[in-house]
Amino acid sequence: MRTDDFVPQFLPGSTPSLAGGVPPAPPGTIFALAADGGYAVPPRKFALHFGRCRDEVHVPIGVDDPRVSRLHGVLACDGREWWIRNKGKLPIQLPGDVMLLSGHDMPIESGYTPLFIGSPKSGPHLLEVHVVGARNPRAADQQHTRTRPPDIYELSPDERLVLTALAQRYLRQERFPQPVTWNQAAADLNRAPGGRHWTWRGAAHIVGALRERLSMGPDPIPGIRVEDGIGEPVGNTLNHNLIKAMLASATLMPEDLLLLGDQLDENDG
Description:
Strand order of the largest sheet: 1-3-2-12-11-8-9
Low-confidence stretches: none
Mean pLDDT: 86
Distance between the termini: 43 Å
Shape: elongated
Number of strands: 12
Strand content: 15-25%
């Protein structure tokens, strides 16, 4: 489909979630959808507005929530790529714990991106964004191929054991998890099968060396060294970033809790 064949258009409130895909459209077309409807625009110079004031934006969102700004943000295209700019007071939450703060902008990648606006008191309002990517002729062939194993990081037995103790709250799928304290990690390691005596300093040394090793090389993990500009509390943030990378790459899995002597239930996979 040519760009000239697709005109900017409103999307009714009955439009299905964009997570399941979008109607045929030329590459670079953006679809934006909230609870009361949305808008779709092909790649051209355009500023798509979203916010609380229904009469002044293309996509109304949070119309009954005064914490959402009348014009909360703009999806702008320079003719080739789309950017999002936050013009409201509240941050815009993106996937991966990324927050777009007021006055800042960033590019929107091809594919589906859920955005959330709101506060803990009012609850989040969902703005779905989907940018049509270039058609990949190999996609039809790839859908039936065998699943590619994830690119996991190599860990020694001690590194895996200590990291499992540190990350146990994440592996148990607790809400808002944080790394356990070093004293707690050492106590849990000393209760684990194997009979080795652990101190908190020994456990911290292993994880510190692991962070240093994984911060270098061909595929370094960002945000796991003090030099990366991490704010206080440094140690907890560095370990949190390390654990998130281990989970995202499937290097750490719930079954690693067996190393601590845990019994897995069905929810642990």
